[in-house]
């Protein structure tokens, strides 16, 4: 029997919530033939990732997924067999009430973290305080005892084919060819020091920046009032190119084609890992430096097995970037360790891909649910 899943997504900030929910919805539909309805509370933000969306429609189909507008007038017409409450977004009261008649498998999908406590909390049930319902906490993660990472089944094969075709087009690269860098970061990042370092590099640097709030500090660096898609600006060894905000598949290809990727938040972070290219991750800013704890937990896992010099340089750059305070020597130091970091990222992508992906783990959890 084909299952129906309802995924509820509240867009708190930025693109991560919808980025993850859309990826999950699409994979459930395409790889498992599941009927997915994705409830989204902010269609205009979702449109940045899904330009095909029509903001005037209450429901529409996109790539096999039904996207429904979750507004204040929410009416519960039916309850699906599986309900995903993404990132504790709180389901509509009327939907929870309707679930009592035929309780679905109700899952709270949590944010990703490499911290060790995640294993303990993964798949823990939480009974509803008043109603005969229970929800289960599902934590993505990096170890066998977590819910895994989002990864489409043929992603690594697609990436390898794409990178092979790029190599055939440009068989040799040396220190005179430009270092390709993609840059996606929060606007509070220390953009000025980074771009100054790039401009002073011995090797030319081509920095590709998809359109986002980051353009503001970049335009400031170049002394411009604003930057537009298509703009190309040069200072010293650095050329910045402003790209449009890409579709998720195009963004993947950008990450696959670069020598170094700056990513942030949650979803682009994981895509950078699958790209098998060195990256710098800026965690989403949280109170009481919770994001620094997340960063340390991740680096502790991810950098293990590397030689001490590469690990400490890579880690130090991450810390400086996350604290939004780079030193002038950080960029040249990072460049030195790129070859060793490159070899490590390929191995890490391969080894993390041995773990079952998050969507498969969710489907299996539902199959075995009692
Ligand atoms: O936009 P973000 O900062 O989202 C954040 C984080 O997820 C954070 O953990 C969460 O708490 C907060 O939102 C509410 O970063 P993230 O997670 O990388 O999401 C960006 C999405 O946008 C991701 O799916 C990749 C996609 N993307 C494109 O599709 N095209 C692009 O050109 C770019 C730059 C990104």
TrEMBL record:
Stored InterPro entries: EarP
Reactions listed under catalytic activity: dTDP-beta-L-rhamnose + L-arginyl-[protein] = N(omega)-(alpha-L-rhamnosyl)-L-arginyl-[protein] + dTDP + H(+)
Similarity comment: Belongs to the glycosyltransferase 104 family.
Protein name: Protein-arginine rhamnosyltransferase
MF annotations from Gene Ontology: protein-arginine rhamnosyltransferase activity
Transcription listed as a keyword: no
Organism: Methylobacillus rhizosphaerae
Keywords, in A-Z order: Glycosyltransferase, Transferase
Function statement: Protein-arginine rhamnosyltransferase that catalyzes the transfer of a single rhamnose to elongation factor P (EF-P) on 'Lys-32', a modification required for EF-P-dependent rescue of polyproline stalled ribosomes.
């Amino acid at each position: 029997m084909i299952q129906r899943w309802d995924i509820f997504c509240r867009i708190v900030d930025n693109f991560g919530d919808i980025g993850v929910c859309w990826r999950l919805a699409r994979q459930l539909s395409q790889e498992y033939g599941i009927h997915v309805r994705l409830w989204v509370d902010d269609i205009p933000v979702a449109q940045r990732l899904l330009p095909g969306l029509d903001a005037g429609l209450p429901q529409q189909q996109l790539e096999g997924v039904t996207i429904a507008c979750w507004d204040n007038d929410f009416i519960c017409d039916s309850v699906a067999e599986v309900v995903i409450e993404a990132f504790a977004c709180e389901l509509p009261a009327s939907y929870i009430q309707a679930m009592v008649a035929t309780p679905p498998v109700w899952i709270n999908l949590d944010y990703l973290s490499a911290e060790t406590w995640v294993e303990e909390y993964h798949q823990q049930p939480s009974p509803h305080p008043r109603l005969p319902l229970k929800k289960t906490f599902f934590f993505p993660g990096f170890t066998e005892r977590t819910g895994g990472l989002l990864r489409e089944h043929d992603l690594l094969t697609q990436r390898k084919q794409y990178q092979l075709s790029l190599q055939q087009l440009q068989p040799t690269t040396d220190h005179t060819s430009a270092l390709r860098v993609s840059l996606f970061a929060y606007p509070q990042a220390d953009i000025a020091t980074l771009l100054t370092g790039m401009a002073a590099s011995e090797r030319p640097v081509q920095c590709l920046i998809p359109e986002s709030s980051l353009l503001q500090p970049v335009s400031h660096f170049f002394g411009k009032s604003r930057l537009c898609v298509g703009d190309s600006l040069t200072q010293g060894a650095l050329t910045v190119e402003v790209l449009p905000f890409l579709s998720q598949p195009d963004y993947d290809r950008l990450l696959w084609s670069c020598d170094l990727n700056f990513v942030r938040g949650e979803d682009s972070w994981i895509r950078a890992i699958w790209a098998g290219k060195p990256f710098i991750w800026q965690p989403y800013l949280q109170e009481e430096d919770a994001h620094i704890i997340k960063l340390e937990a991740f680096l502790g896992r991810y950098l293990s097995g590397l030689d001490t010099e590469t690990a400490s340089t890579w880690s130090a750059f991450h810390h400086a970037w996350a604290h939004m305070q780079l030193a002038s020597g950080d960029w040249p130091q990072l460049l030195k360790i790129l070859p060793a970091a490159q070899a490590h990222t390929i191995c890490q992508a391969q080894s993390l891909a041995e773990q079952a992906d998050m969507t498969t783990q969710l489907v299996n959890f539902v199959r075995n649910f009692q």
